[in-house]
Amino acid sequence: MSRLEAKKPPLFSSEPLTKDTVIQSLSLLSRVLKSCYGPAGRLKQLHNGVGGYVCTTSQSSAILSRLSVSHPVLSVLMASVQNHVSRFSDCGLFTAILCCSLIENFKSLNIASCTVIKISKHLLSLCMDYLKSEACGCRVSVDFSSVETLLCLVRSVLRSKPACMLNKTEVDHLAMLILKAFIFAVPCHVETNAVLGKCVIVPVKGRRVVDSTVLPGLLIETPEIQLAKPLTVKRTCSNMIKIALFCVSMSGDTFSPEEGTITVHHGISLEMSELNQLLNVGKQLVNDGVGLVVCQKVIHPSLKQYLKENNVIAVDRAGLSLVEPLSRMTGSKPIASIRLLSASSYGSLKDVCIESFASKHFVHLIPDNTVVCSLILCNRNETAWDELKCACETAEHVLQLTIKEPLALLGGGCTETHLASYIRHKTCSLSTSSFKDIDCSQTQYQLVADGFCCSLESVACSLNHDDGEILTDMVYGHCWFVPPGFPSVSNWSDLVSKCGCGINNNTENLNWRLLQGQFGSPITQGCPKEPSVKVADFLTLDCFAAKCSGLQVALETANLILDLSYVIEDQN
Amino acid sequence: LHAAVAGLPVACSRVLPGLVLRRDFAAYCPASGDLRVVLVTEPLRPALADPGTEFVVDSEGQYQASLHWISRRTEAFMKHLQSNDVKLLLSSVKQEEVVIYYAKLYGVSVVECLSSEEIALIREITGVSPYMPFGNNISGEITETAAATFCQPLLLGSKRCVHIGFTSVCAFQPHCLILCGPVDGVNEQHAVALQGAFTMLQQLFKRVDQREECKAEGESQTEASDVCSWHSSSTQKQVITENMSCNSNQVSERQWKKSRDETETQIVDSDLQGRENPACVQTDLQILSNPISHIKEFNVATEGDGSSGDIQKPHATGKRTGDVHENYKSDSFADNQRNYSTAVSAVDGANAVTECERLDVGKDLEKTSCNIVPFKHEESCVSTAQNYSNSLIEAGSVLPVGGYFEILLHYYIQCYAKQLQQSEVTVISNVVADALLSIPKSLYRTTERNSFTKFYLKAINALRKNQPLPLNEKGLESVYCKYQLVVSVLHCVTELLSIDLVIGVKRPLQKIEDNDSEGDF
């Protein structure tokens, strides 16, 4: 019997952003996320007091999915960022930090939130128009005929995840592998509906990162295969190997219908009957000249033995996740019946061999094409491997997004400071009619724009975790980091050599100013220029689609949270 | 019809033609061009034994033969589909893997687990009924097929969905709205807001009719002229506000309707394009109405046409002490007059201007006299037709947002109250008139102080001087919806005021029928 419990009244709180607890937890979350940001970000160790798995990470996806927050305002923020990450994989921390920063800056303005929202939307549209225009000075177009820009993108993703514990050579090695795997996946002959191939990540833990490699085709782990024996495979006349892929169990378990009853007379064994049927299938496979049988589930030992005797390799327990890529790679159709085999279901392979990494043995299926490839990913320990796997998937996703929109944004904080400079310049020259349209005064607009720019700049500032100063120049609006330990009155040009993204050198007098601590002071800003030379080597680049969307989502979420005046929680 | 995607900026929302099913293909075989679709509602692989029946295995051979027959049968069905050029199979139940396998072999795409609502919708769009494969008709031609122009996978966020463009047999062309927002909650609110907007649009094209026209009476002439002058002022205003002067003549109803469809889609588009506060219906409506406004905003007849017949004074309710009984008093400045029943929509015949009519609402309640003075001014619906309009509120009438409806109503109730002799009606009219002002009051509360007073004075002054109203808001609202709202509110207030005792009960109230059926066990 279930007990009925009296319903609790809903918890009702007004003006959530004025509550101390909310403000404190928001700023705590903001500090935690800021400290994770960038290549020099500090790691977070997440573990449960009672023991078990320990996660060392600096990635937003790992942190946000494991944190539990008390207040609904924070859960909105976190859900928003997590949704963004699930779509774009990249720029999660950027979105989260920007969102927190926007909320904090806008809240301190003492302007009615509806006005703030209107103005900030206008600012966002200015940003988006600029980012999408040809004149945009903080984006580079990606040239797919050379690998350099693509490598920069992948390297930036890998470098921004310090918990992977990679050194420079490892980053270069992995970036090359990821790019290779990605290029494998791009189909050679593009039809109307081009579909990218797939890269399957094979885990090998306890090895050096530089042992990682990319192989065309698929690897299926098979503990029982002896290495010593050379593989003898039947081939067809065109020297290909015929493969049959089964997605039903071939263990001979009796067929169990869901409904109705089956009465079996004495002396009749359905199991035997099924096994005979399996052996019949085996016979047909042998007759059809099949050289390799892969089953998603289990193959009956007798059938396995029979196939082996007839020089057919049988691999079972391949798992559901391999069926789809295997079928794509070989052109075979997964067979779901052990009764009627159609010759059109068979696929073909170029070669089969045995590979072993660390202590694991794999059957390596080598296809004729490279639509599917395997990335054997090694790292020293489990938690670093998990982080690395996530980083590799992000990098792959970033490349996929870039192929759709061949643009990249300058990284290293330069896009943020450049955008802030652009907005400062743009808002100075705004006509009075636009204030009228938004229904606000010019002062209000300036204040909100300043808060918006400061939020963007604070994201760039979070890249720095030491005491050094952060500068921006008045010509390009890029971001420059001064090494720690120098007094703030130094001559900046002696101390900086390259901007955050690496596109500008310290060659001319760029008129630097400090980024931090100037909130509210008027800055006269000319329109930031585009760098004169766009060398594509060793730049820090960010994914265009992910960052644009992150910017929009951050602002939309901040506006949503600022607009909250009541929170009603159901406590039942 | 909508599908929500969380994690994308709101600006990514869009409208897609066709139907989106929120699940992936069980089997997908790319097919280009037009294709035929079959609907099934039962498993296509025959079971060895149906529920409630028994299958007796006499020999191993018989058992294998039966299973063999089942496989053959499934294969034959798919072959049959292929030979009938069917490229897509929609199933309300999950099909066995064998079915999927044969579907793939014979180039038939399969979508499983459609909900009953989806099946019903597809049936309505295409006019086909589910295909029954069993029986002996496996060789015959399949007649129950629907046609589709495309059928493709669609990536929504990270989920793959099925996107089908059915060739509709009815007027309804399905479109699907892809809503994007940072979190699911925002998407839900968007969806609700849009539903509200659509309901409003539907309401917008309703009208309040009156059955009869009367001639203006001498007594009301002064009033009529008053109204007339107001009307002319509004005309002026409209001419001013209307940038498209060519529209000062009537746009024919038909024309308007034609453009309506386009406008609606356009509306939804513009609505979603990076527009305003997601949670706010009002904003949505604002944009929704904008395109419409070009077509019909203040579809004004010339001043000469704007005679007394156009402007109506319907009646609001008021109450007196004891008010158990309601009385509706009808009055009209112009020639028409109507009664409001509490049910609101019914409109009754006209009477002479000064005549009062009483209407029993609560039949068995005690009789107290209570005068109800509904009152309404129609500004923008001024005769679209050549002659004096037959309706009180024209289909598609709109007013600018920002409290103008309330101010206008307030002003006219006050005017009306002033020239009434009966003191109760005057008092009550004033109460209603003042209550109406609470809406603009709260609208202007959020902005700077005194702004309501400013707005009110400006508006009232303009009305007194017959000047055009100062307009600063862009949005429009449906007069019909407002009208329904005011009448419902008055009805609700009357009901609340009639309650004299509230009895609390411990248990949830049950319907009488339930009690009867429970019995005494």
From TrEMBL, chain A:
Domain of life according to the entry: Eukaryota
GO MF entries: ATP binding; unfolded protein binding
Compartment(s) where it occurs, according to its Swiss-Prot or TrEMBL record: Cytoplasm, Cytoskeleton, Microtubule organizing center, Centrosome; Cytoplasm, Cytosol; Nucleus
Plastid as UniProt keyword: no
Transcription listed as a keyword: no
One of the GO biological process terms: protein folding
A Pfam entry, by short name: Cpn60_TCP1
InterPro entries xref list: Cpn60/GroEL/TCP-1, GroEL-like_apical_dom_sf, GROEL-like_equatorial_sf, MKKS, TCP-1-like_intermed_sf
UniProt keyword list: ATP-binding, Chaperone, Cytoplasm, Cytoskeleton, Nucleotide-binding, Nucleus
Cellular component terms per the entry's GO annotation: centrosome; cytosol; kinociliary basal body; nucleus
Assigned protein family: Belongs to the TCP-1 chaperonin family.
Functional description taken from the UniProt entry: Probable molecular chaperone that assists the folding of proteins upon ATP hydrolysis. Plays a role in the assembly of BBSome, a complex involved in ciliogenesis regulating transports vesicles to the cilia. May play a role in protein processing in limb, cardiac and reproductive system development. May play a role in cytokinesis.
Quaternary assembly: Component of a complex composed at least of MKKS, BBS10, BBS12, TCP1, CCT2, CCT3, CCT4, CCT5 and CCT8. Interacts with STUB1. Interacts with BBS2 (via coiled coil domain). Interacts with CCDC28B. Interacts with BBS12. Interacts with SMARCC1, a component of the SWI/SNF complexes; the interaction takes place predominantly in the cytoplasm and may modulate SMARCC1 location. Interacts with DLEC1.
Protein name: Molecular chaperone MKKS
From TrEMBL, chain B:
Chain intervals for the UniProt region annotation (Disordered): 301-325
GO biological process annotation, one example: chaperone-mediated protein complex assembly
Domain of life of the source: Eukaryota
Stretches assigned to coiled coil: none
Family matches, as InterPro entries: BBS10 (IPR042619), GroEL-like_apical_dom_sf (IPR027409), GROEL-like_equatorial_sf (IPR027413), TCP-1-like_intermed_sf (IPR027410)
Range of residues in the leader sequence: none
Protein name: Bardet-Biedl syndrome 10 protein
